């Protein structure tokens, strides 16, 4: 469960921060970034099984038939921002099955994932998009409780936080 997401430089999303609860409804006027938020989440999801380039190409491009990897970067006029950053707080299940069918038990269920990507538009010696920073950091139970932006009873939170 994602509890908080910060996005900077993905499509139209600049300095965007959202808090999620067990049920979150995303609503608003046209062209304010709702679909781009879902594209960002889809992009992050696709990174788990694909390369950065495959994930970027799979994301829809505005008013274009074919995706261009640059289209995931914020654009102002004809200039693209050269970095995208994601900062995500999440609560993961205590038990899960891995890709090989083996059960795994988490020792920590509250995590923060940070990812910073850089566009290397004019450098043929490097990948077109590279990872500049990537971290998966545990979050303490105290910090998690303090940072949840929804009401939950103690029994529930104690049952999911390890």
Helix content: 10-25%
Helix-strand makeup class: alpha+beta
Percent in strands? 25-35%
Give the C-alpha Rg: 18 Å
Helices, by number, come to 4
**Major sheet strand order:** 2-1-5-8-9
Please provide a written account of the structure:
There is one protein chain. This protein is α+β, with helices and mostly antiparallel strands. Helices cover 21% and strands 31% of the residues. The protein contains 4 helices and 9 strands. It has helices at residues 34-46, 52-58, 141-147, 154-160, and strands at 2-8, 16-19, 75-76, 79-80, 83-91, 95-97, 103-105, 110-119, 129-138. The protein has a 5-stranded antiparallel β-sheet, with no helix packed on it. β6 (95-97) and β7 (103-105) form a beta hairpin.
Helices and strands in order:
Layout: E1 2-8, E2 16-19, H1 34-46, H2 52-58, E3 75-76, E4 79-80, E5 83-91, E6 95-97, E7 103-105, E8 110-119, E9 129-138, H3 141-147, H4 154-160
Antiparallel strand pairs: 1-2, 1-5, 3-4, 5-8, 6-7, 8-9
């Amino acid at each position: 469960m994602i509890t908080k997401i910060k996005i900077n430089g993905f499509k139209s999303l600049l300095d965007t921060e959202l808090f999620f609860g067990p049920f979150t409804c995303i609503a608003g006027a046209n062209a304010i970034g709702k679909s781009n938020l879902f594209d960002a989440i889809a992009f992050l999801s696709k990174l788990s099984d694909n390369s950065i380039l495959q994930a970027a190409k799979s994301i829809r491009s505005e008013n274009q038939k074919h995706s261009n990897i640059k289209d995931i970067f914020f654009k102002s006029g004809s200039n693209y921002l050269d970095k995208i950053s994601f900062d995500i707080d999440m609560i993961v299940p205590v038990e899960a099955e891995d890709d090989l069918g083996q059960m795994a038990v988490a020792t920590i269920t509250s995590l923060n994932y940070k990812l910073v990507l850089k566009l290397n538009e004019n450098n043929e010696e490097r990948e077109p998009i590279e990872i500049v920073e990537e971290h998966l950091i545990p979050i303490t139970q105290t910090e998690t409780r303090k940072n949840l932006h929804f009401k939950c009873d103690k029994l529930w939170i104690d049952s999911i936080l390890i």
